[in-house]
Amino acid sequence: MIANSNFTGLDLEFWSNIKLLNQRLGYVVRKKGAGQDVEFLIPDIEDVLAVFKDENLDYSRIVVDDCWTDFGQLVVDYLQYRSQVLLRDIEPNLMNGEEASQVFFELKNRLDPKCPIPDNKQSGDKKAPAYFTGIINMIIEAHAQSFPCDYDPRELTSITDQGFPKRTLSRRVDGAFPGPINPYAIWEIKEYYYTTTFGSRVADGVYETMLDGFELNEAYASLKRKIKHYLMVDAHFTWWVKGKAYLCRIIDMLHMGLIDEVLFGKEVIHRLPILVDEWVQAIKQK
Length: 286
Known about the structure:
Largest sheet: 4 strands, mixed
CATH topology of the largest domain: ECO RI Endonuclease, Chain A
Order of helices and strands: HEEHEEHHHEEEEHEHHEH
CATH class of the largest domain: Alpha Beta
Structural class: alpha/beta
Number of domains: 2
Radius of gyration: 21 Å
CATH architecture of the largest domain: 3-Layer(aba) Sandwich
Strand content: 5-15%
Number of helices: 9
Strand order of the largest sheet: 7-8-9-10
């Protein structure tokens, strides 16, 4: 998923209002009598006025004479778009462990990979390959055209100029192409197939990716050095059943320009080969 250009380049005031409204009104409204079906909250004028009046805030930039201003309509349009893309594109792509296992072993049997395939962090009956990470690694290897790739950088990402470090990120990432020193692309992988709750570790993963995005944006603004930044997430139960609010925040993060693209579950199968081909061609043309 790439950002919708209608909602990119917006200033931090816009995102401040999105965050405030979601904080006060929530992200999801359960449909009465519809079991576990949900709909994502789209506030009406009364909702917004109630929030702003309760907080003693000026609402004149959003609502005037009981009508949306252009800014207010943009807020509503974005929240409607976010709801549509979550229901139409994201939820159908998220896999459970069994689905991910099927994709993993089909690729493994077909590609005969040499890339590293780590195990998950579970124990007992749940101990298994990290299916989503393995899928990603195998696809990258199959399309890298013999270019190196660091599938598990154990060092910080650095940007150098004539051999001198100019910027170093605060965190280690999950992958770097071709490596963590002056990479063309870096990525984070968030797979949680056997998680039964949405805990702080999962939430922290979202905020860590935001930190990377802020640092990369500063590096680009100061040094004019662009590094492609990707987030890849999977696990239907964790993200959809338990973590819809964080899916919303990931979409916000994408449109704030903190990541270049998010790949949700099965999306890696058809989209990641295209991206790796683009990385290879970009490096060849340098």
